Amino acid sequence: MKEPIGTTGLALNEPLIWEKGRKGRTGFSLPKRDVEHAPLDEALTGDGPDLPDLSEVDVVRHYTRLSQWNYGVDSGMYPLGSCTMKYNPKTHERQAALPGFASAHPLLPASLSQGILRMMATLQRFLGEITGLPAVTLQPAAGAHGELTGMMIVRAYHNDRGAPRHKILIPDTAHGTNPASSVLCGFSPVPVKSNERGVLAPETVAELMDEDTAGIMITNPNTLGLFEENIRKIADIVHGKGGLVYVDGANMNAMMGIVSMGNIGVDLMHLNLHKTFSTPHGGGGPGSGPVCARQDLAPFLPVPRVKEKDGTFHLSYDHPKSIGKVHAFYGNVGILIRAYSYILSMGPNLKKASQLAVLNANYVKEKLKDTFYLPYDRPCMHECVFTDKWQEAHKITTLDIAKRLIDYGFHPPTIYFPLVVHGAIMIEPTETESKETLDTFIASCKAIAEEAKESPELLREAPTKPKVRRMDETRAARHPQLAG
Amino acid sequence: MRYLPHTDEEISEMLAAIGLKSLDELFTSIPEDCRRTDPLDLPEPLTEWELNRHMDALAAEMAVAPGYKIFLGAGSYHHHIPEAIRQLLLRSEFYTAYTPYQPEISQGTLQAIYEYQTFVTRLLGMEVANASMYDGASALAEALLMAIRVTKRKKVAVSRLIHPFYRKVVETYLKAPGFEIVELPSREDGTTDLSSIDHPEKYAGIAIQSPNFFGCIEDLRSFGGKIHEDPKTFFVVAFTEPLAYGLLKPPGAYGADIVCGEGQSLGIPQSFGGPGLGMFATKMKYVRNMPGRLVGQTVDKDGKRGFVLTLATREQHIRRERATSNICSNEGLCALATAMYLSSLGETGLRELASLNHDKAEYLKGALARAGVKIPFSAPTFNEFVAEFPDGFQEKHARLMEKKIVAGLALAPFYPELKNHYLLCATETITKDEIDALIREVAS
Predict the structure, then answer these.
(1) Nearest by CB to B64, which of A99, A109, A142?
(2) Does residue B394 belong to the interface with chain A, where contact is any CB pair within 8 Å?
(3) What are the DSSP E strand ranges found in B122-169?
């Protein structure tokens, strides 16, 4: 291969922020005081928190240096499976920062907030069209929050029919948030084993599905990157016993314009706008997790709902069957603006995005299947899952491979997930990576597999190029130091 | 399309490498009857410049400062945000990164969140803070669930002077698994009536907000004493305006077990209510029952200081159905903004800014009182307070809106007994002249 893109450069040390500064400095332009000091009972006042006093330059240098120790999508390929780390268009930041949006107070009367309400109503329509599930709430602030909202809707639906249910089916390939979210709603998760093809078998679901089971939570495509090919039969079985089919839409990036979830028996699902719809992950959020549902589930959606009447928009609270509120206001509107901008920029090209995401994943799978063991050798969707089986002989693990990729200039894939695959390496390239980037990634993986045989120490010692080396995580957990 | 790098030629080469002829063939593993046949009914793509024009037009339909004079708080506060913070947040190594699961290439986020956690503990007087929750409301709901988990009791008490929307969210979270919520009444001075808590040992946790929804500062000392008659009962303090703690003694000083609320005030744009920042802090003895991510300090292989996500065995990706919460993505970038904001202010600046907020609202309060408006609650307030206007003010409130003044939030929809009562807020962004102009309108 050509020279790896990973190299070393000048990184700057930077202390903890309270190790800097000098009493009396300030980095803030305080507004002029045009009113008198007003007394406040001294029994109530304290000394104020112990914060460092810094100049604006101190603050700017501190965070600029910190930022340089990070790796983002703008730095390079970020093939983190199930996370859809696609490029985040710059124009989205401009739109969300427009003062009319960024400075808007959430309790303005509808007459003074038509712009955002119109945006929300239109985005709901777009998401309904993409999923085939027209009743949409934008309130959940993240994917797991969407799952929780979805499970509450499922619960409310059964309670409304006068027959509360207590169990929920969850495949063994599911994200950890699925069982955690269902338990928060009072459901007991019942694990469903996937079959030797890596998907759910209708018979297994039929055995477990009964009239105390509220429904099933399926990730489709699943976390092995495989389309749940029996979804229609499974939906029939679940519906036959009065249950609902919930889809975790984390992997929707493979499906836009390809599959309409509403047409294959899905009753409701959540989307991750910070995955499929290109809003930035922000180093761990904010995200946004709208829930899309069948029209007859609309009465259960959270309040308020955005409604239109004669061309004007308002927030409506009068929905007695609603599960209530899940967010103080209306969700992460700043993120909704970015997703809305993305859909307007892409239009029907969203289908092309899904096609190219699947093309990229299959290309990587094909090119690497002689390098890493591929437990399910079948056409994949937007991601593919390898393992460290062939590297075990050299006492090299998935973790070593992931860390060595850092030295080569790539963010590692998702590792050790899904749990059903031992030593999983889950690669999701996304559609915004070009063929030459993929080729460099593939060549790097091949070079690492060679190193695993010839000089495994390079992998065990990796990474060596970042500012710090492997961290002592055991020490962090045994002696938690969580504040300075 | 500029976000899709593939040329037709590359697509053909890649398909050939896979052994396929068309993009459609990539989807043969999807059964025919599951494939979508109709095209996506979405508008044709806009160019970057068309998008700008469209979004500018939508934004122009919103009423914001400085064109409008907005005396609204109630859980969302207009404060100045330094341009340095806006630009630093656009460092794309921060905003285009994922959750810092790979610490060697995420030290920037990790150190910044560690610093954020530290600032939160110092601001609230607590021992440990997490890396954030979705917002103030869900943070309060999770706090009460945590109290229920630790005490194994099934009932909580919540002051009716907690933000009405927060109480709605608490209700949604607690009613699904079947827990009971008791509402604590209010007193004539605008604070919570704690005399109704006869037996604190009946409750998993008791929550109040300070400053409360009326802007009134609660008597946390008395509350702490009363609630901790049973040391196991969780004393939960919520807030919507953390800037108050630049001036006030922190809830930790009164023995609070969990302090949680909304951090939007600290450097985050209002954005019609989100994204915000759920702040969450507790005592070290409860750390293993805490929801949300935690960053901890450790060392690398060479003994160099560094940071990692830690105590993950509480979390959903490890513990699944036995996790302390289902939360995964949080509000990381907003936590970063708050850390930057507090760094910019420093101890000295935070105090002066908090005091300025207090004094602006006091000026408005005094001027309204002199103009004959009743100030019904006597408890001290921070930067917002309740005013009771004469009958007919509703029409004037609407007329003022036409003059681009939003004279507070009507409270009757939330508290039916508070007819003609409005919640008004004045932060440092409101000038004395603007307050005087409002008073002239009210008095006219």
Answers:
(1) A99
(2) no
(3) 128-129, 155-159
Nearest CA in chain A to B365: A38
Give yes or no: residues A279 and A358 share one domain.
no
Q: Residues A319, A450: one domain?
A: no
Fold of B83-341: Aspartate Aminotransferase; domain 2 (3.40.640)
CB-CB: which of A30, A41, A333 is closest to B274?
Answer: A333
Considering the domain architecture, whether residues A435 and A323 belong to the same structural domain is answered as no
Q: Is residue A287 part of a domain?
A: yes
- In terms of phi and psi (left: phi > 0; alpha: psi -120 to 50; beta: otherwise), the region of B273 is left
Residue A207, domain extent: 92-348
Shared-domain flag, residues A327 and A355 = no
Same domain for A381 and A236: no
> How many residue pairs from chains A and B have C-beta atoms closer than 8 A?
686
Q: Is B58 on the interface with A (CB under 8 A)?
A: yes
Two tokens at B22? 């068309």
- Short-list A121, A167, A109, A23, CA closest to B408: A109
Report the CATH number of the B69-81+347-443 domain.
3.90.1150.10
Contacts of B272 in chain A (CB under 8 A): 101, 104-106, 113, 116, 329-330, 333
Query: φ, ψ for residue B247 (rounded to 5)?
Result: -120, -40
Tokens coding A425: 């390496």
pLDDT digits (tens, 9 = 90+) for A217-234: 999 999 999 999 999 999
Mutant choice from B105, B179, B322 vs A, greatest count of A C-beta within 10 A: B105
Is residue A330 domain-shared with residue A448, that is, in the same domain?
no
User: Are residues A122 and A236 located together in one domain of the fold?
Assistant: yes
Contact A51, B345 (CB under 8 A): yes
ipTM over 0.95: yes
Helix/strand/coil for B436: helix
Q: How would you classify residue B420: left for phi > 0, otherwise alpha for psi between -120 and 50, otherwise beta?
A: left
**What DSSP character marks residue B194?**
G
- For the stretch A239-278, pLDDT in tens is 999 999 999 999 999 999 999 999 999 999 999 999 999 9
Q: pLDDT tens digit string along A392-445?
A: 999 999 999 999 999 999 999 999 999 999 999 999 999 999 999 999 999 999
Q: Are A60 and A93 in contact (CB under 8 A)?
A: no
Residue ranges, comma separated, of all CATH 3.40.640.10 domains in chain B are 83-341
Shortest alpha-carbon distance between residue A454 and chain B (Å): 23
Whether the bond between A39 and the residue before it is cis, its omega within 30 degrees of 0, is no
- Which member of A40, A151, A470 has the closest CB to residue B301? A470
Cβ atoms within 10 Å of B410's Cβ, excluding its own: 19
Nearest chain A Cα distance for residue B199, angstroms? 27
